[in-house]
Amino acid sequence: MRRIQCRALHYPACSGNERRTRAVAPYVAIEDARLRISVGADGSPCVLTVAGEVDIDTVDLLRRALSDALTCGANPSVVVDLTGVTWFTAHGLTALVEARGQARALGKRLRVVVGDNRAVTVPLRATGLDRTVAPFPTLADALDPVAAAAS
């Protein structure tokens, strides 16, 4: 796994002495050979852009990025853009359900963008999670406050 930081400011973490990165632009890319997660929070909400394969070997990267985005910062929402995902297993579904629960516990919203990406839409529909997670067709829709308030 490689963590890349660029054009970022640091601020004290939400807990402990660890330091976290606050975005000025898309600021952190977390990647391994099969998964890349870019995180940007130059506005509200924070946006995680996920590309590659989400499976048992890579899901911990997604879980960590989701948890970090939800627990740090004042953004009331986190948007996860899964349109670049090429493989999405039950492990990814579980990570989304866990993140949704964490968001609710924190009084935040989790918005998931899937577009027409069959690698993600098929498992969401097959499990019924498309009704729980309420996926958005585009990033613009997820960022639209009127559409997002309805979810």
Please characterize this protein's 3D structure.
With 151 residues, the protein is of the alpha/beta class. 36% of the residues lie in helices and 33% in strands. The chain has helices at residues 59-71, 90-105, 118-127, 129-133, 139-143, 145-150, and strands spanning 2-5, 8-12, 19-23, 28-31, 35-40, 46-54, 77-88, 109-113. The strands form 2 sheets. It has a 6-stranded mixed β-sheet. The longest helix is centred in the middle third of the chain and has 16 residues, at 90-105.
Indicate the topology:
Layout: E1 2-5, E2 8-12, E3 19-23, E4 28-31, E5 35-40, E6 46-54, H1 59-71, E7 77-88, H2 90-105, E8 109-113, H3 118-127, H4 129-133, H5 139-143, H6 145-150
Parallel strand pairs: 6-7, 7-8
Antiparallel strand pairs: 1-4, 2-3, 4-5, 5-6
Helix content range of the residues, please? 25-40%
Mean pLDDT: 80
Which structural class do you get from the secondary structure elements? Answer: alpha/beta
What's the total count of β strands? 8
